[in-house]
Design goal:
The complex is a heterodimer of chains A (about 130) and B (about 775).
Chain A (H helix, E strand, L loop, with lengths): L23 H7 L5 H8 L4 E6 L4 E9 L5 E8 L13 E4 L4 E5 L7 H16 L1
Antiparallel strand pairs in A: 1-2, 1-5, 2-3, 3-4
Chain B lengths: L32 H14 L6 H22 L8 H9 L5 H33 L8 H6 L19 H5 L68 H8 L4 H11 L10 H6 L7 H11 L8 H8 L55 H21 L3 H16 L9 H15 L4 H4 L1 H20 L60 H35 L5 H20 L11 H8 L1 H10 L5 H13 L1 H7 L10 H10 L2 H12 L13 H8 L1 H19 L3 H6 L1 H16 L15 H8 L2 H11 L7
Helix pairs in contact in B: 4-8, 4-10, 17-18, 17-20, 21-23, 21-24, 23-26, 24-26, 24-28, 25-26
The chains are: A alpha+beta (about 130), B mainly alpha (about 775).
Chain lengths: ~130, ~775
């Protein structure tokens, strides 16, 4: 309702990579558009975070590294509820696949919310183009 | 020739040691001809004997075929290996791995020539698949260790890539802590000296099933044993399983099949999946081309393991782009690396083989922070630690773990590099500042803050290294959809580059009449929000101009300046609402913006860019509507963010403006009539933190002006005096409890008030407003 002209909406599916299979670098580079949270988590490397997974497991640890898929590596981890997950007692470091993360709890003073908002706006502009 | 499906082992039928050609005695071992022959025989068997001559003729013909088949299988056409002998030899593998090795060598050398020209073609084809020009990116190339033309250390020739080498279980030193998947920010692994490889060498030869056709790109490999099965200690039985088939051809099979198998047999699932289907691993064609080379004799697992043990940070390519001199590149020197951030392995206290992450790709500020943390942790753990004896204990147990790690060296260094390369390629960006906006800016801000703090101290000591992220030139790919000549119409192929329109959504706006008042209000708010967002984009652009200015050429700069000015004007227009005529009679638009939290923040950010008049205008509008804004801000409490830019603006304002500003605050009409007993406007202002602080600022500024050379103007201004008296009256009137707590109390207020009130009232004011420094 807000707009006055008709805007055709395009939904981008993932698209078969086969067509671009041999041109992988180009297609892959296009994927670099959604790098906001990658950039954000990079700035948090070395800080203590609590990662809550979709299976309700909460892991507290130091953020060791993150990649473009937001896979997370934590070091020196401890499970917040050890009684429930005794198998985690001996685990010191872990790798968490990005897709299973539900929440990441961060220290508030490590985040610049204004900058984050700016980054989100820029990304939205970029995506529109 | 028997076609294996999914690794079914072909087992000979028991009993008969000699393959019989009897109708039903034909063993499967005979080969693909066997089913046909069997079929024929069976059909003949079933054929009634009183068939006409045709049947016998067919029989005769088939006899000839049989002979031909015979020849193929057993005669001149066949390969001469005696399966029984081979079988016996292989059976000995259980006891003597060494023997098996020789056997393998022998077998391989036989087959080399046969496979020779096959592999060359394949290698050529495969190498074309790899896009070499992408690999010229220095960032990527530095992320990997191997050079595209294979240069192995120690004078190894390409035969090291022989399939048997791969199939052999290579035990290399690998930290158990190393995560199998490669993360872009993977920290560097120190190189470990190979530890006792000789005893580890097993012939875990697993014969992979043969494909009937050339390798199909993208199709998954066929595996004899499921992926991810860790190699057993005695892997030879596995070998035997495959080879038990007495077919003579099968002995050759493992060698021949090696080239179709794209992967080493011991890739763990995540590693396997990480290889995109569309490409084949470089190690595959490396292996392939390796098969062309001379036989196995020069294969030296020790050297191979030496290389395999390394794991270089894929992101270390960024090193080259640093202002600071890059640390020594080659992996062997990683052992002397600077201390790593974050003690990762608490059980591995300081010792040369500690897991040292590579942080050179991080912003220098970030690195510093991490180092500090790591130092802290280190000290903590040192205090908790026992004697050095404990550490030694740790070390040996750790090495124990390493030696027994069944998942070590699943990937060759080359394969790891290849995966890293792909990941790095995906991270290439045409505009790192934009793509990596948050990270870059965050640490820039931190640096500014720390620099500001340092300035108070003894000046900047630390080097001002800048993080320079490599940038790739943007290539314009004009996508041309697939077309065939002579075809009618075009193919509709949807791909990543050419996504198909899935939904056609048409947005129509509703007409004005239908909307009710409520909806109008809602719409208005939405419109305001849209305006705010548009203005925000302009603001971000304007804030970016400084950086662009530095990057641009001389000729472009005036144009940039123009653009910037234009954008600033646009922003201002957006803020105040498009001017209907010359005047801007209503503040409505502005007030609407100011009612929304992000609107207020945006105004605070825009103010520094505006000209003095424009800024003053904004200030006026704010002061005019302050009570309303205060009321609206009760929830957000964001008005305070405006104080700072307001004070900056005030500093530049002439006295006349200040007066009128105060007027606005006090909400007096131009010509003051007898003042009301209570000025509600001002009262509201005083009760709010922001309002009071703003008032103080204005008063303070006025005082400054009075003290300065242009003071006489102000002194003579009746309005100012009047306003001052009104202000002081109000301040005296208001109960102390209702008075807000200002952000800061300017020091010159006391002197200001002393001009306008007598001593008694001054004392009252003093205590009330806590104007004297000592009172808190």
């Amino acid at each position: 309702r807000a707009g006055t002209k008709s805007v055709p909406v395009r939904l981008r599916g993932p698209g078969p990579l086969a067509a671009a299979g041999l041109k992988l670098p180009h297609a892959a580079r296009a994927a670099a558009a959604g790098m906001l949270f990658y950039s954000f988590f990079k700035s948090l490397v070395g800080k203590d975070v609590v990662v809550e997974l979709k299976n309700d497991l909460s892991i507290c640890g130091t953020l060791h590294s993150v990649d473009q898929y937001l896979n997370i590596k934590l070091t020196d981890i401890s499970v917040t509820d050890p009684e429930k997950y005794p198998h985690m007692l001996s685990v010191k470091n872990c790798f968490i696949r990005g897709s299973v993360v539900r929440y990441v709890q961060l220290p508030a003073d490590e985040v610049d919310t204004q900058l984050l908002q700016d980054a989100a706006r820029k990304e939205a502009l970029q995506q529109k183009q | 020739m028997c076609v294996f499906r999914d690794g079914e082992a072909c087992v000979s039928r028991g009993g008969g040691s000699e393959p019989e050609w009897g109708p039903r005695g034909a063993s499967l071992a005979v080969g693909v001809s066997a089913p046909l022959t069997m079929f024929r025989y069976q059909s003949l068997e079933d054929c009634p004997l009183d068939e006409d001559e045709d049947a016998f003729q067919t029989l005769g013909e088939e006899d000839e075929d049989i002979d031909q088949f015979n020849d193929d299988t057993f005669g001149a056409g066949a390969i001469d290996d005696d399966w029984q002998e081979a079988h016996e030899r292989l059976a000995e593998l259980e006891d003597k791995p060494a023997t098996a090795r020789e056997l393998e060598d022998g077998a391989v050398s036989d087959e080399m020539e046969l496979l020779g020209h096959h592999e060359e073609n394949l290698a050529e084809r495969l190498s074309k698949l790899v896009i070499e020009n992408e690999l010229e990116d220095p960032a990527i190339m530095q992320a990997v260790q191997t050079q595209p033309p294979m240069q192995q250390p120690g004078g190894l020739n390409s035969s090291i890539w022989d399939g048997s080498a791969v199939l052999r279980r290579i035990r290399g030193p690998l930290l158990t802590q190393e995560m199998p998947s490669v993360s872009v920010l993977e920290y560097a692994m120190p190189q470990r000296p190979p530890q006792g490889q000789e005893d580890e060498r097993d012939l875990s030869e697993r014969a992979l099933p043969r494909r009937s056709s050339s390798p199909v790109i993208g199709s998954p490999p066929v595996r004899a044993v499921p992926i991810g099965t860790p190699p057993k200690q005695a892997t030879v039985p596995n070998f035997n399983q495959q080879i038990l088939c007495p077919k003579p051809v099968h002995i050759r099979a493992p060698m021949q099949q090696r080239y179709p198998s794209p992967y080493g047999e011991r890739m763990s699932p995540n590693q396997l999946c990480s290889v995109p289907a569309g490409r084949m691993s470089p190690s595959q064609f490396a292996r392939v081309s390796g098969l062309v080379g001379s036989p196995l004799t020069s294969m030296n697992p020790k050297l191979l393991q030496g290389r395999v043990g390394q794991m270089m940070s894929p992101a270390s390519g960024f090193r080259a782009f640093f202002g600071a001199p890059p640390p020594p590149a080659p992996p062997p020197s990683q052992q002397q690396h600077p201390p790593c951030p974050g003690s990762h392995l608490q059980n591995l206290r300081p010792h040369p083989q500690m897991f040292r992450p590579d942080t050179t790709h991080l912003h220098p500020q970030h690195r510093r922070l991490l180092h500090q943390r790591q130092q802290q942790n280190r000290n903590q753990h040192r205090s908790l630690n026992g004697s050095a004896g404990d550490r030694a204990g740790h070390r040996s147990s750790h090495q124990e773990q390493l030696r027994k790690d069944p998942y070590a060296n699943l990937m060759l260094q080359r394969e790891k590099d290849w995966v890293s390369k792909i990941q790095m390629m995906q991270l290439q960006s045409t505009d790192p500042y934009l793509d990596d906006f948050y990270y870059q800016n965050y640490f820039q801000k931190l640096e500014k803050v720390s620099a500001a703090e340092e300035m108070h101290g003894d000046g900047p000591k630390k080097e001002r290294t800048k993080l320079i992220t490599p940038q790739v030139a943007k290539l314009e790919h004009a996508y041309k959809p697939v077309q065939f000549e002579g075809s009618l119409g075009k193919l509709t192929v949807s791909s990543v580059n050419n996504p198909r329109k899935m939904i056609d959504a048409v947005v129509t706006s509703r007409s004005e009449d239908d909307e009710t008042k409520e909806k109008q209000v809602r719409d208005k708010r939405r419109q305001t929000l849209v305006t705010i967002e548009k203005t925000y984009s302009l603001l971000l652009d304007v804030e970016d101009y400084e950086r662009r200015y530095l990057l641009s050429l001389e000729g472009e700069r005036p144009a940039l300046m123009e653009e910037r000015k234009q954008k600033i004007c646009d922003m201002y227009d957006n803020l105040r609402g498009k001017a209907p005529g010359q005047e801007r009679p209503s503040d409505d638009h502005f007030v609407q913006i100011m009612c929304i939290r992000k609107g207020k923040r945006m105004v605070a950010r825009i103010l520094p860019f505006l000209s003095t008049e424009q800024a003053a205008d904004i200030l006026m509008a704010t002061a005019r509507n302050l009570p309303f804004l205060i009321k609206k801000d009760a929830q957000d409490e964001v008005l305070l963010c405006l104080l700072r830019p307001f004070s900056l603006v005030l500093y530049h304002l002439p006295s006349g403006t200040v007066t009128s500003l105060l007027q606005q605050l006090a909400n007096l009409p131009q010509s003051a009539t007898a003042p009301a007993p209570a000025n509600l406007h001002l009262a509201a202002v005083l009760q709010n933190k922001f309002g009071l602080s703003l008032l103080y600022l204005v008063l303070s500024r006025g005082e400054e002006l009075q003290n300065s050379s242009a003071a006489t103007e102000l002194m003579q201004d009746n309005q100012w005096t009047e306003l001052m008296s009104m202000a002081t009256r109000e301040l005296l009137r208001i109960p102390e409890a209702a008075l807000a707590k200002p952000v800061s109390t300017p020091s010159n207020l006391l002197s200001l008030f002393s001009r306008y009130v007598d001593q008694q009232k001054l004392n009252v004011l003093e205590t009330k407003l806590q104007l004297v420094q000592g009172i808190r």
